Automatic annotation (TrEMBL):
Alphabetical keyword list: ATP-binding, Kinase, Magnesium, Metal-binding, Nucleotide-binding, Phosphoprotein, Transferase
Catalytic activity: [phosphate](n) + ATP = [phosphate](n+1) + ADP
Post-translational modification: An intermediate of this reaction is the autophosphorylated ppk in which a phosphate is covalently linked to a histidine residue through a N-P bond.
EC identifiers of the protein: 2.7.4.1
Family label: Belongs to the polyphosphate kinase 1 (PPK1) family.
A Gene Ontology term for the protein's cellular component: polyphosphate kinase complex
Functional note: Catalyzes the reversible transfer of the terminal phosphate of ATP to form a long-chain polyphosphate (polyP).
Active site positions: H432
CDD domains (UniProt xref): PLDc_PaPPK1_C1_like, PLDc_PaPPK1_C2_like
Residue span(s) of domain PLD phosphodiesterase: 585-615
Protein name: Polyphosphate kinase
Gene: ppk
Keyword Metal-binding among record annotations: yes
């Protein structure tokens, strides 16, 4: 297999950043879909806004940093960072306008028809305004602070993602105009409930009471604005003696990161906008004018209303049949167990596994990786109880998990205080693998290892909305692998070869490349050959080139990619055997599955790694080979179902565009994969 890609077309990669924006566009298309329950559409609008915030804080910030530091090499797609930023600005402006149009022209009117009204101040009746006057005096006035800008008061710092008002007031005695900024306190809800299911944006309530905040002054104009800042942390692990302390110091500085976006209401005056741009250092392409209200991420407050007829029908995760009449450790001893969340209960499987281990007197040790979890997680509680009971508990906490750093530091200290051995990741790498190892002394005196390898975080909250797999095993080979890997994570080791695991960095990239080459060889020999992958992102150039080469010799390739994909499918002579699909819906497709046909004896893997350079080269990742024939059939069947022409999905074009296909040629609805899997899980539970 060619390693350099020199024999492949130069323009074979799409832009990673634009690919991610197209993913967020697919989220927006769900908000635009009038067949989806109304409050869920409002939630998709909120998710779009939150996603876009993170995109600017990380991806756009990274491009700007490369420009500022002179590291402005072209991207794999051949574009200079400056050109990419211009293209991002163009696409993002269009998407934000479309997002606002969806809210104002579709979702907001539909909410009003359902009795849920999002009003502006001018829409309020006088009795409602009186109610808001009282609310302002009681709940807003004590916590809001105006900041004037004059020679004695420099322009105040504006924190990232805060909602603000830019106010111009005039002194009647001197006729002098003064600019002021008011930060909308984060302790206030995004929308104030005037009365039952009637809301008004919090900034409207504040704006209506500006004369009380600037008593004796004339309020000439006011406009909402919002700043997005670079939040990436920079800690040199080789130059610090205390990684936790260094990270905490960086977290304090995070809110002072440079500006990457300035959002303003489209009604803002040129004079006020000029002041904001000058004081905040915003360039023209960083300014986004949109219809108010800003920060529609706050629509999750509306989406959480108790109106079940306007939401997806309730789903109660089921308990796997094998666990209904048996304890979890006994079930795993009998046979490996594959579970899929949220269709199968995270509480009844993964949480139960760790909780049982914590209280079982025969369990002598627990080793656990934690990347993201909630501070009140039952898993953390169980680990603390296990340590207090005298068990050896080792927890590898990745404190560099973006946006969860402070949370991870806090509960890591709780684990330490309880007597757990806490390791804060590996220098130079993020520990992203999802592993749990329980060591138990059996009745005959021998030690047995109970293992869990997952595709998702040990987080009970996200496990209700993220689709993920987990494999439980007592296979001695898996136990040896997890012991070796934990020893590598907590000690010193450069082990690359494992029995049923593929581990990054080190062996994972090479193994995937070998598997792709093996499919090429099988195809050349006339044996069954096929590649199927389910990932969140596909942006690694070496893997993409390997898939191109496999396609050029005729290997069928099916790629199920939730987010960004830089590979161009369907190009004659390059990728005509490659199909790319994306499925978005009620649950966030998060699992990673890799299937290689291998001449009719499929090699099937699940794990934590996406196909990105950071996952393959700069993170500790783990895939586990699935050996149970029924489990393999289940995973193969799921990917085949996702790629079927009869299944509703987005289909990717060679130019990077995506087309949503929800109906067949006769107009009949296509199959909804998530509803099908959900029904299948319930059927299994009933029949079992």
């Amino acid at each position: 297999m060619g390693q350099s890609g020199d024999n492949l077309p130069a323009e074979r990669y799409l832009d990673r950043e634009e690919g991610w924006l197209r993913f967020n566009q697919r989220v927006l298309e769900l908000a635009e879909d009038t067949e989806i329950p109304l409050l869920e559409r409002a939630r998709y609008l909120a998710i779009f806004s939150s996603n876009l915030d993170e995109f600017f804080m990380v991806r756009v910030a990274g491009l700007k940093r490369r420009l500022a530091t002179g590291i402005a090499v072209a991207s794999p797609s051949g574009h200079h960072p400056r050109d990419l930023l211009e293209r991002i600005s163009e696409v993002t402006h269009d998407l934000m306008v479309r997002h606002a149009r969806c809210f104002h022209g579709s979702v907001r009117p539909a909410l009003a028809e359902a009795g849920i009204r999002i009003l502006r101040w001018d829409d309020l009746e006088e009795t409602d305004r009186q109610r808001m006057h009282r609310f302002f005096r009681r709940s807003i006035y004590p916590v809001v602070t105006p900041f004037a800008v004059d020679p004695a008061h420099p322009f105040p710092y504006v924190s990232g993602r805060s909602l603000n008002l830019a106010v111009t007031v005039s002194d009647p005695q001197t006729g002098r105009d003064t600019f002021a900024r008011i930060k909308v306190p984060s302790v206030l809800p995004r929308f104030i409930e005037v009365y039952s299911e009637h809301f008004v944006p919090v900034e409207d309530v504040i704006s209506a009471h500006l004369p009380q905040l600037f008593e004796g002054m004339e309020v000439k104009e006011h406009h909402a604005f919002r700043v997005t800042r670079n939040v990436d942390l920079e800690v040199d692990e080789d130059e610090t003696d205390d990684l936790v302390q260094s990270l905490e110091n960086e977290l304090l500085r995070r809110r002072f990161g440079p500006l990457v976006r300035l959002e303003v209401e489209e009604t803002i005056s040129d004079d006020v906008l000029d002041i904001l741009c000058k004081e905040l250092g915003a360039e023209e392409e960083e300014v986004y004018r949109v219809p108010g209200p800003l920060n529609l991420a706050g629509l999750d407050q509306i989406a959480d209303l108790d109106r079940p007829e306007l939401t997806f029908s309730p789903m109660v995760p089921v308990e796997p049949r094998r666990l209904m009449n048996d304890d979890v450790l006994a079930a795993i001893r009998e046979r490996e167990l594959l579970v899929q969340h949220p269709y199968e209960s995270f509480t009844a499987t993964t949480e139960r596994f760790i909780a049982t281990a914590a209280t079982d007197p025969n369990v002598v040790a627990i080793k656990q990786t934690l990347y993201r979890t909630s501070g009140d997680s039952p898993i953390v509680t169980a680990l603390i109880e296990a340590a207090r009971a005298g068990k050896e508990v080792t927890v590898l906490v990745e404190i560099k998990a973006r946006f969860d750093e402070q949370n991870n530091i806090q509960w890591a200290r709780k684990l330490e205080d309880a007597g757990c051995h806490v390791v804060f990741g590996v220098v130079g790498l993020k520990t992203h693998c999802k592993l749990s190892l329980v060591v138990r002394r059996e009745d005959d005196g021998s030690l047995r290892r109970y293992c869990h390898v997952g595709t998702g975080n040990y987080n009970p909250k996200t496990a209700r909305i993220y689709e993920d797999f987990g494999l439980f095993s007592t296979d001695p080979e898996v136990g040896e692998d997890l012991s070796d890997l934990f020893n590598q994570l907590t000690g010193f080791s450069r082990k690359k070869e494992y029995r049923r695991l593929l581990v990054a960095p080190g062996g994972l990239r090479e193994s995937l490349m070998w598997q792709i080459q093996n499919e090429m060889n099988k195809h050349a020999q006339g044996d069954p050959a096929r590649i199927r992958m389910k990932v969140n992102s596909l942006v690694d150039e070496e893997i993409v080139d390997a898939l191109y080469e496999a396609s050029r010799v005729g290997v069928p390739i099916d790629l199920w990619v939730r987010g960004s994909c830089v590979l161009r499918p369907g190009i004659p002579g390059l990728s005509e055997t490659i199909r790319v699909r994306s499925i978005l819906g009620r649950f966030l497709e998060h699992s990673r599955v890799f299937i290689f046909e291998n001449g009719g004896e499929p090699q099937v893997w699940i794990g934590s790694a996406d196909l990105m350079p950071r996952n393959l080269d700069r993170r500790v990742e783990a895939l586990i080979r699935v050996t149970d024939p029924e489990h393999r059939m289940r995973l193969v069947g799921m990917l085949d179902l996702a790629m079927a022409e009869s299944t509703s999905s987005w289909r990717m074009e060679s130019d990077g565009g995506w087309t949503r296909v929800t109906r067949d040629a006769s107009g009949e609805p296509l199959l909804d994969l998530q509803n099908t899997l959900r029904g299948d899980r319930h059927l299994r539970a009933v029949d079992g």
